[in-house]
Automatic annotation (TrEMBL):
InterPro entries membership: LytR-like (IPR046947), LytTR_DNA-bd_dom (IPR007492)
Source organism superkingdom: Bacteria
GO molecular function: DNA binding; phosphorelay response regulator activity
Record-given protein name: HTH LytTR-type domain-containing protein
Domain HTH LytTR-type residues, every copy: 13-114
Length: 114
């Protein structure tokens, strides 16, 4: 299943962090991870930010260039440096390895080619 991304109306994603609203530039988002009904953002500067929305809610707001690699992860394609089809892993510029689910592998490959 492919999610259609809507074109961003701005260059940043507004999120609530505790009691304040912050706009995170899309290019600063390395990947997002689900944690039940919360989403953890891993940012370029190394910060981890937890918000009280689901990964699915954020998936609808992300522009092209982000790909859902697993039911619990979305990755910014700009930060993927290697893809291992056999182990179904993508390696990010920061050295992290993110698992890719079998049913999402072909969509990840297409996203990286386009």
């Amino acid at each position: 299943m492919t999610t259609l991304h809507t074109p961003p109306t701005s260059l940043a994603l507004p999120i609530w962090i505790s009691d304040r609203r912050e706009k995170i530039p899309f290019e600063q988002i390395v990947w997002l991870q689900s944690s039940r009904n919360y989403t953890v953002f891993l940012l370029l500067d190394g910060r981890k930010v937890m918000t009280a929305k689901t990964l699915g809610e954020y998936e609808k707001k992300l522009p092209e260039g982000f790909v859902r690699v697993h039911r619990s992860s979305i990755v910014n394609c700009e930060y993927i440096v290697q893809l291992n089809r056999v182990q179904r892993m993508c390696i990010l510029k920061n050295g992290q390895s993110i698992r890719i689910s079998g049913r999402r592998l072909s969509n990840v490959i297409l996203s990286l080619m386009g």
